[in-house]
Design brief:
The protein is mainly beta. Helices cover about 0% and strands about 45% of the residues. The chain is built from 1 helix and 27 strands. It comes from Danio rerio (Zebrafish).
Length: about 350
């Protein structure tokens, strides 16, 4: 489950059994909106472009947003045929929030008003081929499709890209024996799609041709989370390792390891936030350490915040080998410029 979801003005936390609190990052004194599902909330997503929240409990998907007077209300409550695996609020400014939800082998689009009883629109559904991951941009949805049984004869697991307006599959990419575990469409550069796989590789696809333009051997226990911008890739793995890559040359810039698998990643030009969530929340087995607080701490999740906003004008944090200029020819000073992790030097 997501540890939190956030926009520039709101945060959302799943708290008590089935309860959801929405907080303002401006005031923060008390929740600005509260509601409760009948069962445990296991997935939620807060829109990055406005105040809209989607949450799921079992097969139920609820969408909340402010009305014209600014009061938060339930916009829709839809029950899908199977327990929901994930929800995403589609980015972009819209009068009615558009939400993508996936369950089993089906992906749905939800955009009904509270007063309307509209069936969810099926964007993708192939019997026996589960959806393993989904991401959306304002106009497209990309999803990992697991091939099972006879489907393995078609070349393995795939990523399919759909147009949200047309509802048609525009592109099919990939040919992997491993499951696609994460995909990043909204943050990748123009015409690019980033994805991670259980086969330990991070791949970048060109949406114009459907071909792979970069493949990085990244995590020995499989890739669990990815994000990209114009030239950086950040990937997380099941072994707890976070890696920052330079996309243009395929080089590793920085890495950090924590105990548990990296489930979520969010980075900007100067900061990186990761969530490491254990597979199991309590120690296994009955032994003398079961009641030891130290043992229990090992099974707690961890949210890490890394700050890369050092003053690049200062030479103190730059290695001597990286301070050379083209006028110096002695030794091994070749103007390498390795200021980690973003390679930004203010001058010689």
């Amino acid at each position: 489950m997501l540890p939190f979801a956030q926009t520039s003005t709101a945060k959302c936390y799943p708290v008590r059994l089935g309860c959801v609190d929405v907080w303002s990052t401006v005031t923060g004194l008390e929740p600005i909106h509260q509601y409760q599902h009948l069962q445990r909330v296991h997935v939620l997503d807060l829109s990055p472009d406005g105040p809209a929240l989607a949450s799921a409990s079992g097969p139920d998907v609820r969408v909340d947003a402010p009305d014209e007077q600014g009061y938060w209300r339930s916009q829709s409550l839809v029950q899908l045929p199977k327990p929901v695996d994930g929800v995403l609020v589609v980015p972009g400014k819209r009068d009615i929030p558009l939400v993508t939800a996936w369950a089993g082998e089906s992906v749905y689009l939800l955009n009904s008003r509270p007063e309307e009883e509209q069936e969810p629109r099926v964007l993708h559904s192939v019997y026996g081929h589960p959806v393993t991951c989904v991401d959306t941009s304002p106009s497209r949805a990309a999803m990992g499709i697991k091939s099972c049984g006879w489907g393995m004869n078609d070349g393995g697991n795939k990523i399919q890209v759909y147009g949200l307006e047309s509802g048609q599959c525009e592109l099919t990419m990939g040919n992997s024996a491993g499951d696609f575990t994460c995909v990043n469409l909204r943050d990748s550069g123009p015409h690019l799609l980033l994805c991670g796989n259980r086969d330990r590789r991070v791949r970048v696809f060109d949406l114009r041709t459907g071909s792979s333009v970069l493949s990085l051997y990244a995590h020995h226990m499989g890739v669990t989370a990815v994000q990209a911008d114009d030239w950086r890739i950040v990937s997380g793995g099941g072994e707890g390792l976070v890696i920052v890559w330079e996309m243009r040359i395929g080089a590793k810039l920085w890495e950090m390891h924590n105990r548990h698998p990296v489930r979520h990643i969010r980075f900007s030009s100067s900061t990186l936030v990761t969530a490491n969530i254990p597979d199991e929340k309590s120690p296994r087995g009955a032994c003398i350490t079961d009641d030891d607080l130290t043992a229990h701490r090992r099974y707690r999740g961890l949210i890490c915040h890394y700050d890369f906003s050092m003053d690049s004008s200062s030479q103190d944090h730059i290695l001597p080998i990286c301070r050379s200029n083209y006028a110096e020819s002695s030794g091994y000073n070749y103007n390498i410029g390795l200021s980690m992790p973003y390679d930004t030097l203010s001058g010689p």
